[in-house]
Design goal:
This protein is mainly α. It has one domain. 94% of the residues lie in helices and 0% in strands. It contains two helices and no strands. It is flat. It starts with a helix and ends with a helix. Keywords: Membrane, Transmembrane, Transmembrane helix.
């Protein structure tokens, strides 16, 4: 029960941080810049995601 409470607090904290970051970003950057940033950032995310999937697949296939 305690860990669930901690997790919820952590999740809310992250949500607030992300929300603040997004609202500040919207003020600082135009929509085009945000899209440009997302496009340049997206390949890195997909690469890490593929790496994670590959790692999980190899890890569970050994069992």
């Amino acid at each position: 029960m305690h860990t669930v409470h901690l997790f919820l607090r952590y999740f809310l904290y992250i949500r607030i941080r992300v929300h603040n970051f997004i609202s500040v970003s919207k003020r600082l950057f135009s929509k085009a810049q945000i899209i440009q940033f997302a496009v340049s950032f997206f390949p890195k995310v997909t690469f890490f995601f593929k790496l994670l999937v590959f790692f999980l697949y190899t890890h569970f296939s050994r069992i």
